[in-house]
Amino acid sequence: MRTVVAVYTGQGLADPLKEVFRELLPDVRLVNIIDDSLIGDVVRAGHVPPGVARRLVQYFHNGEELGADVILNTCSSVGEVADDARKLIGVPIVKIDEAMAAEAAARYDRIAVLATLPSTLEPTMRLVGRQAEAAGRKVTIVSGLAAGAFDALVGGRPEEHDRLLLEAAVNAASEADALVLAQGSMARMEKALVAATGKPVLSSPRFGVAQVKAELARLERERSSEGKEPS
Description:
Largest sheet: 4 strands, parallel
Protein name: Aspartate/glutamate racemase family protein
Radius of gyration: 18 Å
CATH topology of the largest domain: Rossmann fold
Number of strands: 8
GO molecular function: amino-acid racemase activity
Number of helices: 10
InterPro entries: Asp/Glu/hydantoin_racemase (IPR015942), Iso_Racemase_Enz_sf (IPR053714)
Order of helices and strands: EHEHHEHEHEHEHHEHEH
Structural class: alpha/beta
Organism: Cohnella zeiphila
Family: Belongs to the HyuE racemase family.
C-alpha cells in the first residue's frame, strides 16, 4: 500500500482533507503529522521564524522515516520552507497550493489572492507570481486580505469570519478575473464566494490531492520502467 504523509501546522484542515483523500485516493495509507504550535508561531512573528522552519523540516524527515512515498505540505504560510526542504528529503514533497497557483496563473490575467493572514497572503502571492513566470505569462495579482477574519475564527465567531471574508472577496473581485483562496481551510467558502462575486474561485485541497495522485502515478511508472528487462 502506498503511503502519503500530510504535515499540518494547524488542526482545521485535517478532517476535510481526509475526505478528499477518501474520494481521490481511497487505497492510500494516509498518515497525519499535526503541530498546531507552528501556525501560532508564524502568526505571532508575522513570518516563518527559524524555529518553525527547523521543526517543519524535521517533520518532513519523520514522514520519510514513516515510509512516505509522497509528503504533502498542507500549509501555504510555510510553502517556501517546503521548497528548500525538497533538497534535503529523499521523497517528493507536494505543496497543497502549487497546482492551484499554476492553474490560476495559466488561465487568468488578473488574480485576486484571498487570505485572513498576511503571513499566508504574501507567500501565496509570490507563488502565483512564480508560476506565471514559469508559464511565460504576465499576470496582475490583487491582494485580498480579510483583516480580522482569522481572529474572529479563533475567537469562536465563525459567522464574523465568513462575513469579513465575503466582504474582502467582493472588494477584490472588482479588480480580478478569478479568486484564489490562500488557505486550504477556506475551501468550505468556495461556493458562497462564487455566488457573492460571480467570479471563478480556486481552492487548494482538491488540487493538492490531485497532484499527490499524479506524483504517485509518476513514481509507479518509474518503478515499472526500472523493473523491465533490458532488450
